[in-house]
Amino acid sequence: SLQDNVASKCLKMHTLIAIKCLCFCLQDDGNFVIYGWKPVWASDTCGSDVFRLCMQADCNLVMYNKAGGAKWQTNSHNPGGCNMCRLHLTNDGTLVVYKESDEIWSSANSRGEMNDVMT
Q1: Residue 21: which region, alpha, beta or left (left: phi > 0; alpha: psi -120 to 50)?
Q2: Residue 31 and residue 47: Cα distance in Å, rounded?
Q3: What is the CATH number of the domain that holds 104?
Q4: N-to-C CA span, the chain
Q5: Percent of the chain beyond pLDDT 70?
Q6: Which listed residue, 15, 26, 71, 83, has the most CB atoms within 10 A of its CB?
């Protein structure tokens, strides 16, 4: 899992993280995809100008463009911050955001939110 205690952790374009038989990748086309033997989940942001994916200290997973505009998010932010955020890829390919031990977002239930107003 990727953990965040103080500052945001970011993955830049072309980043591939592999865990067992699964991986997640921020692709050249702006899509964030979880792969098993085939695609398991995607953010549906293909064609966007996304440049990096950040697990922020406020528990929100956000994709930004090069200009710093937020293009997609899990909308799992916790106003006032928190002490422990965690991004976890499960064995079945589900991506989960935890605040301390509580699940606050899951790719099994959501594709996240496009952020046209946050550009």
Answers
A1: alpha
A2: 7
A3: 2.90.10.10
A4: 29
A5: 76
A6: 26
